[in-house]
Amino acid sequence: MIARRAAVTDAERRARLGVRQLLAPGARAERIEDVAEALIGLHATDPATVYLSAAARLAEPSVAEVERGLYDDLTVTRMLCMRRTMFVVPTPLAPLVHASTARAVAAKERAGSLAFVAQLGWDERRYAAVERAALAALAARGMAGAAELARDVPELGEKVLVSPGKSYAAWQTAGSRMLRVLAAEGRIRRARPRGAWTSGQFRWTVAPEPPAHDPDPLAAKAALARRYLYAFGPVTVDDLKWWTGWTLTDARKALAATGARDVDLDDGTTGYLAPDDEEPVPAPESWVALLPGLDPTSMGRRHRAFHLDPAHVPALFDRNGNIGPTVWADGRIVGAWAQRADGEVVFRLLEDVGAGARTAVAERAAELGAWLGPVRVTPAYRTPLERELAGPKR
């Protein structure tokens, strides 16, 4: 007789989410490194997301704690990797992430940059010369913005009109493309930005020397998949493919290499757990959280029905599939929040969560408003409900 495969219910998936992703009571972390480790990486396309995602999971949230890891101790690293998206990952994990995903992204970035400067009449030889000059100028300055480097290396300021004739046509500099490539390759890194922690005007500095030998790409993919299984599992092959940006073949090979255990999910599909992660995760105490747009918990899977009613998708996502700020209760997305111009954090629940949870959400909103203080946060990707909530009081 063939034994029936084990099953993981939606309720246990929500319990795992709360515990593994540091949102349930008693699960909060002390350091930014622990937060990044638990989630593999914090989404960083929107600079504010890193801080807000960390604040939701730190026992004592502070901007200083995130900046310590990013800019002082360099224990977390901002890099372009999974899905050609910016993440903040634990620095010890960066070589593995580079070998498994970022290396391929960097190769595409370099090809695109070479095609861009070809419009300026540059060949690869000139590109290489300008790149060497830029690195030398950055090393001499220690830290600099793109405009400062362009004063040292004027070629970096040469411009190309992108998408001419379109409503979104814009001039872009050679430096903006070249610096992005160097960062994607791990040769330079984003340093402390100008202005507040919500700013995306990053300065640049030369990156520390990389390890002498990158991990083997196939082994790195398997190692990253194993971490993903533990942080987000059970997940489907489609989830892994979507989250990493790999091909379906690569996702299947990586899963097989982990020795992942397949389980039945409530929706009738097959999910996968890490081979040493078979014990059920008990439901934690009741919890609520206000997570920012693009938070890794919200964006960690392609299939979200176990924690998100599909009817709520039009209000909570933009047209490109980016999620806005969300309200969570016991492992489910139950609403949205926004910050108004006067600083007040407001929310709307899209389903009945009970009086206790509603009170807890209101308390969390007041705490977040007090934590933000004079800072105003507008998500990089606006969603219908966030826009409505952030509008004038009625």
UniProtKB/TrEMBL annotation:
InterPro entries from the UniProt entry: AlkZ-like
Stored PANTHER family: LMO0824 PROTEIN, WINGED HELIX DNA-BINDING DOMAIN-CONTAINING PROTEIN
Name the record gives this protein: Winged helix DNA-binding domain-containing protein
Pfam family, one: AlkZ-like
